[in-house]
């Protein structure tokens, strides 16, 4: 992840032609990233066998890297880059999302869930970019995307929680909701929990920013650049 972090950190200040090269440099790293979401059941071994058997030129399970922290960084950064630069580099950015969703069985499911969460935080500002990402996914894996979307539509209370924006990565926190009992709801559970299971107090609403290891220890107010 240090290489991915370094490339995305340089992306914001790079010239247009250099940005195009940086986007191409990211592709080999995305191939080895298996997205991990603690709220999404992991794929079973049979899923890997069936998935790679259906993919031309692929056989068996490959080795790669995957963690909740890496997933947060990759999705936050790619979505930020999409919002800021997809008009200038549409082909390269589409290829990034296409590569990410095609390499591992659960990646597409995790991406969809991430888009649902960020779109719910600021639909007026972020929904157009989420729709653009879904379009990229549809061009890459139309049948699998349709299957996943239909599953989400048939799921009752897909996100049975409150979504709170935070000023530190992953820039949102999910607060679980207790199911209604005795004809009324008990309201939200005491405390809050983010996507990685950490608990803490809710932070003030802040705009999104690029998410890199290099800046993770800095004051967010100094490193933050909002999504236009």
UniProtKB/TrEMBL annotation:
Region span, Disordered: 179-228
Polar residues: bias regions: 179-196
InterPro entries: Furry/Tao3/Mor2 (IPR039867), MOR2-PAG1_mid (IPR029473)
GO cellular component annotations of the record: cell cortex; site of polarized growth
The organism's place on the tree of life at top rank: Eukaryota
Any one biological process term the GO annotation gives: neuron projection development
Ranges where the Cell morphogenesis central region domain occurs: 71-155
A Pfam family per the record: MOR2-PAG1_mid
TM helices/strands, residue ranges: none
PANTHER family linked: FURRY-RELATED, PROTEIN FURRY
Name recorded for this polypeptide: Cell morphogenesis central region domain-containing protein
Organism: Helicoverpa armigera
Lineage, highest ranks first: Eukaryota, Metazoa, Ecdysozoa, Arthropoda, Hexapoda
Gene designation: HaOG207314
């Amino acid at each position: 992840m240090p290489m991915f972090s370094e490339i995305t950190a340089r992306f914001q200040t790079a010239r247009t032609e250099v940005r195009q090269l940086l986007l191409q440099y990211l592709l080999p790293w995305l191939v080895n990233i298996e997205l991990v979401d603690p709220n999404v059941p992991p794929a079973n071994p049979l899923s890997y066998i069936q998935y790679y058997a259906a993919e031309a030129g692929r056989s068996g399970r490959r080795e790669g890297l995957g963690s909740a922290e890496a997933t947060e960084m990759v999705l936050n950064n790619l979505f930020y880059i999409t919002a800021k630069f997809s008009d200038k580099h549409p082909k390269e950015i589409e290829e990034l999302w296409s590569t990410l969703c095609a390499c591992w069985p659960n990646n597409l499911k995790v991406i969809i869930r991430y888009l649902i969460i960020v779109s719910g935080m600021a639909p007026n500002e972020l929904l157009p970019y989420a729709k653009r990402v879904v379009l990229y996914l549809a061009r890459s894996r139309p049948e699998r995307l349709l299957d996943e979307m239909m599953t989400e539509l048939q799921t009752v209370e897909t996100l049975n929680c409150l979504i709170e924006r935070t000023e530190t990565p992953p820039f949102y926190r999910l607060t679980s909701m207790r199911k209604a009992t005795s004809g009324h709801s008990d309201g939200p559970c005491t405390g809050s929990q983010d996507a990685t299971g950490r608990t803490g107090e809710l932070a003030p609403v802040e705009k999104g920013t690029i998410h890199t290891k290099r800046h993770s220890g800095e004051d967010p107010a100094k490193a933050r650049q909002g999504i236009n």
